[in-house]
Amino acid sequence: MVxxxxxxxxxxxxxxxxxxxxxxxxxxxxxxxxxxxWESDTPRGKLLMVHxxxxxxIAPTQEVVDKIFQCFYCKxxxxxxxxxxPVTDILTDARADLINAGFExxxxxxxxxEDLCSVCGVCVPLCKYDALKIxxxxxxxxxxxxxxxxxxxxxxxxxxxxxxxISQKEGCNVTLPELHESVKEILxxxxxxxxxxxxxxxxxxxxxxxxxxxxxxxxxxxIVTMCSGRVAPELILDAFESGAWGVMxxxxxxxxxxxxxxxxxxxxxxxxxxxxxxxxINPKRLKLDWFSTGESAKLQQEINKFVKELxxxxxxxxxxxx
Amino acid sequence: xxKVDVENLKKIVGSENATDNPVDLYAYSGDASVHQAxxxxxxxPKTIEQVQKIMRYANKNRIPVIPRGAGTGTSGHAVPIDGxxxxxxxQMNHILEIKPxxxxxxxxxxxxxxxxxxxxxxxxxxxxxxxxxxxxxxxGGEIAANASGVRSVKYGATxxxxxxxxxxxxxxxxxxxxANTRVHSSGYQLERLIVGSEGTLGIVVEAxxxxxxLPKFRCLGVANFNKLEDAGNAISEIITSGCQPSMLELMDGxxxxxxxxxxxxxxxxxxxxxxxxxxxxxxxxxxxxINKMKEICKAHNGFGIELSYDAEERKRIFSGRKKLFAALSxxxxxIICTDLAxxxxxxxxxxAEAAAKIHEIAKRNNVIMAVYGHCGSGVIHTKIMLDPKxxxxxxxxxxxxxxxxxxxxxxxxxTSAEHGIGLSKAxxxxxxxxxxxxxxxxxxxxLDPNNILNPHKLMDAPDDWVxxxxxxYRVVK
Lengths: 322, 477
Ligand SMILES: Cc1cc2nc3c(=O)[nH]c(=O)nc-3n(C[C@H](O)[C@H](O)[C@H](O)COP(=O)(O)OP(=O)(O)OC[C@H]3O[C@@H](n4cnc5c(N)ncnc54)[C@H](O)[C@@H]3O)c2cc1C
Fold this sequence. Notes:
The complex is a heterodimer. By secondary structure, chain A is α/β, with parallel strands linked by helices. Helices cover 38% and strands 12% of the residues of chain A. In chain A, strands 6-5-7-8 form a four-stranded parallel sheet, with helices on both faces. Chain A has a two-stranded antiparallel sheet with strand order 1-4. In chain B, strands 13, 14, 15, 16, 17, 18, 19 and 20 form an eight-stranded antiparallel sheet that branches. A five-stranded antiparallel sheet of chain B has the order 6-7-11-9-10. Chain B has a four-stranded mixed sheet with strand order 1-3-5-4. At the A-B interface, helix 1, helix 3 and helix 4 of A face helix 2, strand 6, helix 4 and helix 12 of B.
């Protein structure tokens, strides 16, 4: 359905949109493109849509809205735009205009199931973008509201919610059920000894678009989560149980995480190491390492080193016996 | 095209790999050119059989098919001027076989150039003709455009690396062209006919390409010049001096200002910069070559010359050149970089003269043009920078194109050295090469009698590029 939209905020970007030469360097590193692979999932494609809407070439339909609201704000696109077009700023303004016009939006925005939510508020201070607020629902009742323009889809709240009330649309391989599935899928294949959870924001840029899997067999598998803060402890336990000899969580260095998710990961992994001891699993089999954007060579080195250590340790006895 | 056609195509590739959703169609309406036109459907085949079935269906029903890689083409090559089916080849992105012993690889067409080079690295090999767009451009698109790049001055263009091709023709039949060997003298070199055919003769579904052992040493130099003319002359002399640069790039003052503005690189804002590189397995030989080039630069008033063997440092020095094209949009407020008159080839002795002529023509016609490119192999890149909202600026651009190409052709240059003709370069090219157009049309007719493969491009493109499709900008005044 087409709605009448006042593109008050988006219109000011027309000149910037014209500066985009559509070279496509923005999508090389876009997680959305890697998940869906249509041109309409590329940042370049989304800018084209915004341009089309403000110049009247395409109608603002629900389909356009669904695409515009799919973005994790990793900013790999703007950081790699040689024309310096502020891609995510433009998308944020387009989002605001579309929400003002009354569109229903979902995309990568988190959703809260009010039946499950106890309004404990754990998620509220966690969000660096102030996208979560406790509001009155009438009659002494409260609820958590999501600011759909400000939510960046990083999913930290999702990993922290004690009642599992927060969710995100599936399809980009970042929700818990999808991640569990990936863990099992990867460890089923070949002879994988190490599972690496890599942060999209810093590490993903080193990875490839084309598929070379058939050629290069590696003793490790990599799963790209959004922020390392999303790596819930149960995922790591799942990896050990599914046959991994070791798990590495690769996140941004302390000051570099946009969402402060890495601090949370660090705390969480310290606790988890204690639990591992109780399960008779050597805590050295779990490693947390920091990598800045572009440090894929360092990541490779650390992976190789860890694989050697794991080969010395051998498989986990507790699971071998079973 | 009818709804039933879309349904039938969905049956071939699966409904998740075909779309006629207006949002998707709009996203596929353009590439890196100024053109825009909507397809009726986009399909993403994953196998050769699917490509064959699509072609059979399209041929029977006379539906245009436009193969598309990464959509980085600069002249509207992949813009569906007649609507029809856009065939997105990026799902066929497997590197099938790396055979260092036979110095070749087999790849699907959707493999990204940089990914191929990353995969070759552990084997100590590389695929040399990489265009500046190598981070996303696909091998299929590079073959269709006969792309070349910064290393082509020493290593040649895509055509020099294509040993064999599997191609699906307009009627859906699959042909296996070329050989696995470095040379063959076994009839028409049909694999070469496909190189540079811009999707008009067949769909490349697999390529066997030659690879090259990585040199042990690479040394990159950068030299500043106050005058563009001096830089141009230095390049011409390096080429005739017996040196074998593995890269010889020019960037004029306009380009330097633009990358400084866009990327904050802090380059010296001089008349021109030359980047020159030597590579090889013997350090002394590389030293000899690089120093000789350095001396030639000096003799042409080059100054502030730096040399580096360090990979990271080389990457830093080169980053401005790699991103120059888009950065040109930042040169001045109110104007943007359009992909017009972008890649002529000129004889080696004419580089300085052509560079000066380009600036002169631009100035006389109220637009700005940067001059840069792989000048060592005779490629001069320019872009027309203008205010896209003004109608008159498009007339200015049209005049520039006419004048500029008349000059280029008069000195023995070519319309396009590496990006291809597509739509926007067709008028000057057709004018200059009227002699070969009938032969090209005959070949096209023999292979694609129903004219369904990327129709109305190259020799069949409209004579007025401004009106050939919608422009992707809002022209208001
Ligand atoms: C920033 C920038 C820098 C560039 N630098 C260079 C450079 O240094 N050197 C250079 O040569 N070019 C350069 N180009 C131009 C462009 O990148 C090349 O022409 C490239 O080869 C196009 O590849 P693509 O995958 O994007 O193809 P597309 O643009 O998608 O398609 C190009 C043509 O190939 C056809 N095609 C695509 N796949 C197939 C297939 N499988 N079978 C048959 N036909 C097919 C299409 O129909 C179309 O006609 C640059 C472009 C940009 C935007």
